[in-house]
Amino acid sequence: MAVMTYAEAGKTALAEEMRRDPLVWAVGEDLGRGGVFGQYAGLVDEFGPERISDAPISEAAIMGASVGAAMAGTRPVVEMRFADFALCAVDELINQAAKARYMLGGQTKVPMVIREPMGMWRSSAAQHSQSLESWYTHIPGLVVAVPSTPADNKGLLKAAIRCDDPVVYFEHKNIWGLEGEVPDGDVVLPFGKARMEREGSDITIVSWSSQLHTASRAAATLEGQGISAEVIDLRTLWPWDRDAVFASVEKTGRLLITHESVSVGGFGAEIAASVSEHLFKALKAPVRRRGAPRIPISYAPPLEDVVRVSEERIIETVKEMMAG
Amino acid sequence: MMHRIRAFEEAAARANEDKLVLGAIHLSIGQEAIASGVCRNLRSSDYLLSTHRGHGHTLAKGADATAMMSELLGREGGICQGKGGSMHIADFGVGMLGANGVVAANINIAAGAAHAIKLKGDDGVACSIFGDGAINRGPFLEGLNWAGVFKLPALFVCESNGFASTTRTDAMTSGDGAAARARALGIAAEEIDGNDIVAVDEAVRAAVDAIRGGGGPRFILCQTYRLHGHTASDPAVYRQKDEVKAAWGNDPIARCAALLREAGVEAETLEAHRDAAAFEMDQAYETAKAAPWPDISLAYTDVQDIGDPRERAY
To answer: In which domain, by residue range, is A304 found?
Structure first.
């Protein structure tokens, strides 16, 4: 075990995989200078500019070229800089990468990782703050990962690089500096296995990415007030760990899903619908969701805060659910 | 090869009239010299990325006509198992990495395939063939710039058939056109008569030699004419009759035949080639017609490795 940040854990994962497999390479804007968040710092010194490759500000080409490079036998790790900018490359990801294997009759796979730094961070406003992870869960062919801890950022990124499917990999900008213990060596996490953040018996709270930590703090506060909340970190949204969520809801009878992304059409809706379809009789209260209102993200902190699902809002919602 | 492409397209048109082709097909009748002239200068291991109008390119790269025709009919034995149809035909066994239903999308993908060649230190070439409509989409700029920046072994071929779907391309294109745009990106470009098989062959051979020699990407603009409509079901009434008639007078196959006759090839020999091609494609159509539908279990295969699409998530 070593203590490192979420950003360092991602860098460690990439470096280990690049040492293991010479066909792995990373491409994106400014990678030679360490990337916009420093998450590639120093890698060019070890691997050289061909494998830690700079790119023009040309997201469609970064993504599209990586599709071709993946089909032609390499394993690109694509840096999109901000999840918002990946929208400049939607055709290349959705129409090409996600579908090539299927529509070409299984003649190829497209092993690539699309790193998309997501979420609210330092008053970045509407085009640098979005959490769009639920969009990608809708697309057959894609894997969607949303790590929340340094350990998971290492284990899931290594899994993503080894995966033969295109993996949309969301790192949250607000937790780049979060420190935690990270296992040494070749620890590769499976997709679709949730992590039990905190055990409890009264209510299940499902979350992921940075919001998981808000949920966890809320659960700790609730504990002091006599409410035992179980907190599950999904880690990946496709596939998502239905078994873990269902087992927890069967135990607690209550489910709250909280995410930073807009509540309408968010992945919380998918979880809520699944639980309602299959576990209706186990529920002691209606399933609730806590996501962002359907407004763009503002610059001024008080306005930005309107979008955030705070610890207080989670606590308030849990208490409403407990009151029946 | 040009006869084979023409015969395939004519058989596909018949299949379309017989209502056995299920979706849209885009015929390349009149553009055969480009497919033939490009692909005869590519190795089987070289990569080719094509467009929605890709039957000719795919055949010329070496794909099997029966498997292609079966794909058009959505039948078992289709080259993509009936999952792709005309616009997604591919044959990775001969380096054909896919037609594409999105105009210009293949340009970036070809640049990436060329990038992989360079990273692996191979001496291959990745070729993208696209239409003149593609030059007004972003990937034309982004992909050519990418190939230029990284000095990739990429050949870009624009089949300029005059029409972007049903609109005249020049009415929708500002500036001096495709070759000028490529040159502005620092890519050596030339413009040739795409209906002249000899001109195409010579230009592509020289370009491929230069690319394999480490010279970076090349661009070739091939002027041609789409003798049929945008799709096989498009009567193309937006064109003047005399324009089409004149274009048929510039048929690349007839021009090639005239050259061969001048060179002393017997008319019977040329007819025999034409007839053999027609027979091959008739057989391909008959075989495809007789094939059953794909097994529906295939609907769930090759989606992805991770996550079971049959889970109760729908």
So the answer is: 195-323
A100/B contact by beta carbon, under 8 A: yes
Q: What are the extents of the domains in chain B?
A: 30-63+80-269
Res B311: pLDDT: 64
Residues from chain A that touch B120, judged by Cβ atoms under 8 A, are 23, 73-74
d(C-alpha B208, C-alpha A18), whole Å: 32
Cβ-based contacts of A109 with chain B (< 8 Å): 305
Name the residue facing A65 among B80, B138, B146 (closest C-beta).
B146
How far does A122 lie from chain B, in Å, by closest CA? 31
**Domain for residue A190, yes or no?**
no
Q: Which strands sit side by side in the sheet containing A236-238, from one edge to the other? A: A52-53, A24-27, A75-79, A113-115, A167-169, A143-145, A236-238
Do A15 and A153 fall within a single domain?
yes
- Tell if the CB–CB gap between A56 and B146 is shorter than 8 Å: yes
The number of folded domains in chain A is 2
What distances in angstroms separate CA A113 from CA A28, A45, A166, one per listed residue?
A: 12, 22, 6
Do A88 and A204 sit in the same domain of this protein? no
Distance CA B203, CA B190 (A): 8
Instruction: For residues A161 and A272, state if they share a domain.
Output: no
Residue ranges of chain A with pLDDT lower than 70?
none
Do A211 and A298 sit in the same domain of this protein? yes
pLDDT one-digit tens code per residue, A30-54: 999 999 999 999 999 999 999 999 9
Indicate the burial class of A278 (C-beta count within 10 angstroms; 0-12, 13-18, 19 or more). Answer: middle
Q: Percentage of chain B with pLDDT > 70?
A: 99
Asked if A192 is an interface residue toward chain B (Cβ–Cβ < 8 A), one would say: yes
Task: List chain B residues with CB under 8 Å of A66.
Answer: 112
What was the pLDDT predicted at A7? 98
pLDDT interval class at B152 (50, 70, 90): very high
Put simply, whether A160 touches B (Cβ < 8 Å) is no
Residue B314 has pLDDT above 70, yes or no: no
**Is the ipTM value over 0.90, yes or no?**
yes
The fold adopted by the segment(s) B30-63+80-269 is Rossmann fold (3.40.50)
Give the pLDDT of residue B172.
93
Best of A58, A104, A108 to substitute, by most chain B Cβ atoms within 10 angstroms, is: A104
d(CA B255, CA A24): 49
Same domain? For A141 and A71 the reply is yes
- Do B305 and A163 count as a contact with CB atoms less than 8 A apart? yes
Q: What sign for the dihedral angle of Cα A246, A249, A254, A260?
A: negative
pTM as predicted: 0.95
